[in-house]
């Protein structure tokens, strides 16, 4: 059954989905109007906004008359009677068991965090348009929602949800998505509310929100949550942002398929491409027979194929997200686990010591995407944390801010959530091999450290110790150790095997590869022992864990697979 028929059935049964909406701004007003006039089987039962007058106006613009409520019992009575309600108390919504789903249309990070935590704690589904929150602590909120048995999801209509729908479609027909892209008309990191005031006034939007669109902050959050929801990465800090004044189909010749494969797929954006303001996915297919059909169907000869949606319709599609979540249990877009891409704060102008950083879409900073491991290791300041921070010293224009550059405000919820997120996903970061080597010293918590084997004893395809495959060429024998940690329920000790992979020796020759087990093969040219005679060669690399890890080979990342047995139980 399609969503429209499910909603029609709810309308026919007199059981409309009852929605609580946070926010009464530009997008929220559109949602109220859309549901009131175009979505049978759904009702915006209550709006919570800091200004109740704006919430009342949102209903008036949709042709409805609402009443202000002061307590939980009064809210339940009005919902039962079908009378729209308005309040400035966010707790009334997430504590109300008469509501089927909540929508966050605020764009405010701290406020969004509070209502999302409240919704999760009280068993309410949350559909969020708040990409800023999702890109800052979305992985943690999703984890909490899973534990509570509810759904925390991004929405259809905004670019991330539209990209995810397209991504799922492309995968469902057998292709491998390698790039999820966003089409922009303008990208200027130095735009301010002053430069965007005219545009904002013309369309009835907030100047700061419009500025976040223009300066790249918003698209960075959007692409970060797409990366976190697909497992993709980025090609470079800030994404490539190609200027492309042509059709999006021509981008298949602009991207290097091997570079995309090397990072496990990438999120990106282009400026000026058609159709605007759409989204696109570039994908590959390994089956020669299917490539023939794709060429017949005018998708080209490959190796990259272009799929696109020519528009994103924002609030028009948000109600569909609510229906998917409530009626089908289908989240539109969620983080897969630990964050993979973050949005980091960058100085929009020269910043002076003692200045307090303003909010998103302001005069002082803009956001750009960076890998989560780089962000953590360099202590880069997340854009979602930057507002309200006081500069400890001057920062030059276009310099990325770090935690060492600022003094955080006291007792902020977002800082506590960031710390909790880092702690919760510490094990996940280890599993991905993203923690720095300095974090893995032999201390009392390590069960034992295995000695470095002689070069002659550690060759590709040879086991050392007898149970474990060596994971380097003969020139750089690996250092190996075991770590112990508690996992599962009941908590039991597990053992993880770590191997030092030298970045100079992570390639294997074709002749060597042919003798290696399939699970340990890596393509490339061999480095001979003579070429590796300098001791410094084996000192450059990283600690990686069994199963899957990224191995640095020159400018690109390739994937390796640990071939040993599973973790001892």
Map the helices and strands.
Blueprint lengths: L2 H10 L4 E6 L3 H13 L3 E7 L3 H10 L5 E2 L3 H10 L3 E3 L2 H5 L6 E4 L4 H13 L3 E4 L2 H18 L3 E3 L4 H14 L3 E9 L12 H7 L3 H8 L2 H14 L11 E2 L13 H6 L3 E6 L7 E6 L3 H9 L8 E5 L8 H11 L12 E7 L17 E7 H6 L5 H4 L3 E2 L14 E2 L5 H12 L1 H6 L16 E3 L29 E8 L4 E11 L7 H4 L27 E5 L2 E6 L2 E6 L8
Task: Describe the fold and architecture.
The chain is of the alpha/beta class and 569 residues long. Among the domains are: 3-157 and 317-324, Rossmann fold; 436-561, no CATH class. Helices cover 32% and strands 20% of the residues. It is built from 19 helices and 22 strands. It has a seven-stranded parallel beta sheet with strand order 3-4-2-1-5-6-7, sandwiched between helices. Helix 2 (26-38) runs parallel beside helix 3 (52-61). The two termini are 45 Å apart. Residues 428-488, 490-497, 500-540 and 542-569 have low confidence and may be disordered.
Say what the CATH topology of the domain at 3-157 and 317-324 is.
Rossmann fold
User: How many distinct beta strands?
Assistant: 22
According to CATH, the homologous superfamily of the domain at 3-157 and 317-324 is NAD(P)-binding Rossmann-like Domain
Largest sheet, spatial ordering of strands: 3-4-2-1-5-6-7
- The amount of helix comes to 25-40%
Q: At the first level of CATH, what is the class of the domain at 3-157 and 317-324?
A: Alpha Beta
Q: Based on Cα principal axes, name the global outline.
A: globular
How far do the termini sit from each other? 45 Å
**What is the residue-averaged pLDDT?**
81
Query: Can you tell me the CATH architecture of the domain at 3-157 and 317-324?
Result: 3-Layer(aba) Sandwich
State the secondary-structure class: alpha/beta
Low-confidence stretches: 428-488, 490-497, 500-540, 542-569
